[in-house]
């Protein structure tokens, strides 16, 4: 099946198209409907009539962007008209929603007259928080954007002009740094003189490139002052006319530092590349095929060629999706009146900075595990990197405030949390724990300290102020990996092969001598098994917490800390707890990793542990003991332990959270069943702590909810230990290690208090 056939099938599948309207409030009862529409809707209508700005308070205006086009210049297709352009505009809406949680109405106008497009768009200002102009031919696009910016009091942004400018501008900042060149010294040549090229040239000037160093070529050749005076070029091209002899693109490229291609495929040869200055920068962005191929440009010279294209199958893709969703996000969140030059520059600088940071594992995996590290083949972040939202939107919002374009402000400390909440409940919940950890960081041992993921996690843990990481392993090997990864930090390393750890061996021997361990065996374990060494360090107080398990099976990783540290004074059993975050709900599930066939004693204790874990995330627990029976409907040896555990907890005056059971899973989480059929239940709201009757069902349950229910899982968090220890899953990503380190720090804070 060809790409076109596959795309047709994709768009035709029911329901046709790519977007829909969804409700954001409950509409399940008659009362809900009377609030959503008549008669209740009169309330917000009257409020907005009295105070127009209340539209941002009571309607979706503040998160709604209109994507406006007449289809006169659709990328790769040309003037295909308004209706044929609709799939593109719907696609733009998908990107807004996917990357920045912004809602979109796409508006395709069957209009060619700029006056009519301006009038139609401006008339819809009450509907939208911002306008994104798309695929409108030059030079009309310049006039339309300029007039709408003057006429409308909301952001207006022509992405075809400014998107490429901003993203390639970020690439230029990094490419120039890698080439050892200053922007003000760069000789820049443009192949192409359309809307995107002119906007990009203007933006490069804003970044620091000197206008007199920019040479622009159109299909006729170099745009010279002589051509401008002869009226051979329009007013927009005249802006970049130079006092140069007439010539073609090849003439312009001789000695140039930078080539910016926004023209046509295959018009640049290797000879033209060889004529450029040392270590040239080539942004060949014609789509779908660039002005010169990636391999051709690289092979043209012996020195470094920093190459970017508009394609995703080569390094350094200049992709507008790195800009517009996040620019609008920041602009909308401070109710900006415009998207000005300062906001665009802030976006480019933030993107350039992000490319220098360590890349999340999920992003690396998405690109075939190829190395993604700042350098000639990585000067721009990848679009799916979730950090783009957290870096770009705040930078744009801050620039809007500082430049006077904002009508409201955001608190930098809480704005990131708001953005994280837009991408998922788990991020919102983890932010609670991360903030607690940063308030009082502790020492966390990472037992598999030679592993690359552990080293990268240690860097992030230290950089974000979550904890002081201590890496266990060979000092030279860890140092070599730190250097190879380009991480600028000096981690604390405990090397068991070089240090004097007799006291640790003595401690281990003292604990295990009557359990079959000799002094020599204790010494050997401390020096050869980092799980024993780390456990002893935590037990004697040389560290506050420990993470392990990344390269071990769970039982083998759990055994040393259980033997050395053990469970708490008030606990006989440990338990593995997962936090599962859905769109509007969080539940904590146990036990999924430790106790295979628990009796009532174990289930009672596991419930207490899991409730404590929920409170670390500022969630007040409501616990349900799960079974295939509802409150005694089945009475046998399989259902009795859950029922008995619930009864004990209910009878304990020290238990300060609601608990009930045994009950079926849907009874526990569906309010209509819980309060309708079983109104006698101790739970007034659906449970958020779910205690499974055995390990098998708990493990199956959390994995089904994660994979089929779309839940994001955090854990397993090991509860009930005397001191904080968490056992990672093999294959966990760096972010999982960082998250569990934060949980371990909060555990240590609670233990200390």
UniProtKB/TrEMBL annotation:
Its cofactor is Mn(2+); Mg(2+). Residues 16-149 form the Malic enzyme N-terminal domain. Residues 161-401 form the Malic enzyme NAD-binding domain. It holds the Pfam family Malic_M. InterPro entries: Aminoacid_DH-like_N_sf (IPR046346), Malate_Decarboxylase (IPR051674), Malic_N_dom (IPR012301), Malic_N_dom_sf (IPR037062), Malic_NAD-bd (IPR012302), Malic_NAD-bd_bact_type (IPR045213), ME_PTA (IPR012188), NAD(P)-bd_dom_sf (IPR036291). This is Bifunctional malic enzyme oxidoreductase/phosphotransacetylase. Its EC number is 1.1.1.40. GO terms for biological process: malate metabolic process. It is an enzyme of class 1 (oxidoreductase). The keyword Repeat does not apply. Keywords: Metal-binding, Multifunctional enzyme, Oxidoreductase. SUPFAM superfamilies: Aminoacid dehydrogenase-like, N-terminal domain, Isocitrate/Isopropylmalate dehydrogenase-like, NAD(P)-binding Rossmann-fold domains. In the C-terminal section; belongs to the phosphate acetyltransferase and butyryltransferase family. In the N-terminal section; belongs to the malic enzymes family.
């Amino acid at each position: 099946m060809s790409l076109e056939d596959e795309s047709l099938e994709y768009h035709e599948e029911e329901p046709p198209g790519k977007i829909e309207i969804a409700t954001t409030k409950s509409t399940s009862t008659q009362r809900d409907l009377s609030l959503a529409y008549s008669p209740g809707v009169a309330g917000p209508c009257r409020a907005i009539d009295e105070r127009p700005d209340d539209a941002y308070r009571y309607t979706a205006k503040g998160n709604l962007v209109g994507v406006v086009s007449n289809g006169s210049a659709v990328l790769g297709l040309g003037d295909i008209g308004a209706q044929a352009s609709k799939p593109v505009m719907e696609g733009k809406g998908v990107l807004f929603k996917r990357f920045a949680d912004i809602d979109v109405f796409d508006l395709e106008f069957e209009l060619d007259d700029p006056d009519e497009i301006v009038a139609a768009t401006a008339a819809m200002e009450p509907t939208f928080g911002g306008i994104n102009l798309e695929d409108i031919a030059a030079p009309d696009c310049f006039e339309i954007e300029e007039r709408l910016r003057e006429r409308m009091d909301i952001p207006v942004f022509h992405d075809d002009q400014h998107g490429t400018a901003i993203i390639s501008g970020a690439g230029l900042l990094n490419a120039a740094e890698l080439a050892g060149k200053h922007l003000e010294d760069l000789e820049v040549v443009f192949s192409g003189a359309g809307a995107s090229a002119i906007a990009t040239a203007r933006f490069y000037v804003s970044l620091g490139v000197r206008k007199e160093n920019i040479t622009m070529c159109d299909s006729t050749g170099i745009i010279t002052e002589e051509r401008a005076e002869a009226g051979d070029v329009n007013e927009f091209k005249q802006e970049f006319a130079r006092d140069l002899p007439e010539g073609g693109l090849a003439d312009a490229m001789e000695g140039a530092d930078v080539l910016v291609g926004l023209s046509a495929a295959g018009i640049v040869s290797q000879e033209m590349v060889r004529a450029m200055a040392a270590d040239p920068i080539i942004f060949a962005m014609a789509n779908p095929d660039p002005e010169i191929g990636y391999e051709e440009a690289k092979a043209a010279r012996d020195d470094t060629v920093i190459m970017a294209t508009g394609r995703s199958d080569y390094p350094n893709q200049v992709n507008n999706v790195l800009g517009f969703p996040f620019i609008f996000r920041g602009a909308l969140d401070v109710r900006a009146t415009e998207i000005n030059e300062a906001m665009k520059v802030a976006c480019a600088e933030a993107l350039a900075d992000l490319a220098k940071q360590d890349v999340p594992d999920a992003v690396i995996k998405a690109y075939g595990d190829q190395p993604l590290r700042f350098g000639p083949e990585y000067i721009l972040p990848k679009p799916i990197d979730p950090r783009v939202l957290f870096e770009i939107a705040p930078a744009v919002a801050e620039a809007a405030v500082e430049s006077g374009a904002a009508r409201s402000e955001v608190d930098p400390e809480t704005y990131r949390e708001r953005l994280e909440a837009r991408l998922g409940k788990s991020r919102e919940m983890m932010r609670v724990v991360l903030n607690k950890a940063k308030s009082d960081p502790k020492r966390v041992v990472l037992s598999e300290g030679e592993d690359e993921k552990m080293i990268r996690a240690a860097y992030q843990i230290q950089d974000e102020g979550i904890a002081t990481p201590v890496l266990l392993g060979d000092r030279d090997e860890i140092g070599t990996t730190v250097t190879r990864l380009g991480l600028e930090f000096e981690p604390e390393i405990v090397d068991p092969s070089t240090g004097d750890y007799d006291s640790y061996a003595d401690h281990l021997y003292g604990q295990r001598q009557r359990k079959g361990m000799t002094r020599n065996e204790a010494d050997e374990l401390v020096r050869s098994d980092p799980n024993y060494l780390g456990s002893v360090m935590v037990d004697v107080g040389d560290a506050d917490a420990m993470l392990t398990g990344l390269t071990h099976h769970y039982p083998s990783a759990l055994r040393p800390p259980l033997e050395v540290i053990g469970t708490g004074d008030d606990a006989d059993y440990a338990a593995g707890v997962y936090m599962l975050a859905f769109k509007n709900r969080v539940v904590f599930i146990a036990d999924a990793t430790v106790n295979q066939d628990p009796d009532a004693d174990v289930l009672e204790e596991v419930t207490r542990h899991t409730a404590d874990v929920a409170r670390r995330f500022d969630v007040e627990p409501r616990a349900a003991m799960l079974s295939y029976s509802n409150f005694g409907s089945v009475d046998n040896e399989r259902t009795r332990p859950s029922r008995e555990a619930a009864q004990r907890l209910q009878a304990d005056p020290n238990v300060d959270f609601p608990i009930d059971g045994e009950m079926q899973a849907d009874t526990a989480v569906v309010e209509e069943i819980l309060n309708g059929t079983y109104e006698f239940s101790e739970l007034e709201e659906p449970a958020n702590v779910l205690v499974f009757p055995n390990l098998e069902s708990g493990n199956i349950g959390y994995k089904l909810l994660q994979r089929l229910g779309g839940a994001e899982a955090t854990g397993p968090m090991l509860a009930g230990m005397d001191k904080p220890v968490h056992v990672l899953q093999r294959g966990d990503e760096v972010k999982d290690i960082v998250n569990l380190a934060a949980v371990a720090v909060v555990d240590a804070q609670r233990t200390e208090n």
